[in-house]
Amino acid sequence: MHKLITILNIFLLLLLATPLYAGSSFQYIRQIQSDNLIGYKSVVLDKDVYAHSNQLADLRVLNDQDEEVPYFIASVQDASTETAKESFILLEEAQYVSTQEGTDTIITIQANHLNAFRLELITNDTIERTYGLFGVTDQSTHYLSEGELSNLPPSDSSMKKAIDWTNTPPVDKLRLIVHNRDAKPIILNSIKVKYYLTKLVYKDLGSSEYRLAYGNDTLRSAIYDVPINKAIINKEVITQSTLGAEISAPIIAAPPKTFLNQKLLFIIPSLVVILLLMLGVRRKLKKQTKS
User: Membrane-spanning residues where (predicted)?
Assistant: First the structure.
């Protein structure tokens, strides 16, 4: 009996002394550049975040005390109003390289690992071609769309030709293959790409600077005691912030405020189990003594 009690006491001491949260180490830090006013803020997750995070599961927002701040990941699917949906769409001119392979024009367009869904070709040429469009990542190339390119009859001296597709996984590049056949290659003025953005939304308390940390393959998506309701993107004004340059500098985050609650949730059931074991052993010894 005395040996059992001693073992249980040692276990209890270890349980109380061992933290359930030992801090989380991150390899990359980005300063969140905002107006430092109280309110909800968002940042667009770019190629560097996708490339160096664990599929976004290890993203953490840290304040100036290195404490975790609740956030959620939002996409256009979370938006229900037209204004909110438009905030998740970006149209910008893209960098591209054009080469010739026989009668085909191969146009490689930078997409920066974003969810592209529309491609606009800006040209003064009158065009009538067929095409194939593919998404390219470091690991694979996959089909996106095919069809005809035509701006006949011309209604504008600088006709915009758009290609739309519905399969929108993040891609590093778009590869457009234009089949010219007997026609001359298209002379492009520019190319524009439309993207669906993925955003990280958090609440700025106006009393701290915030950073985005990532680069930890052991972490899973954060769960907070008081999460932010995604419905705010349709109700609240969310100020767009930007991410600073990526810095490779390991940092250890402090325990979140929910740490104590998490530890108590683990310790209390363990104490109950220990007490029940001790009572059971005591009763068993009493019965043996009486017999």
Answer: 264-281
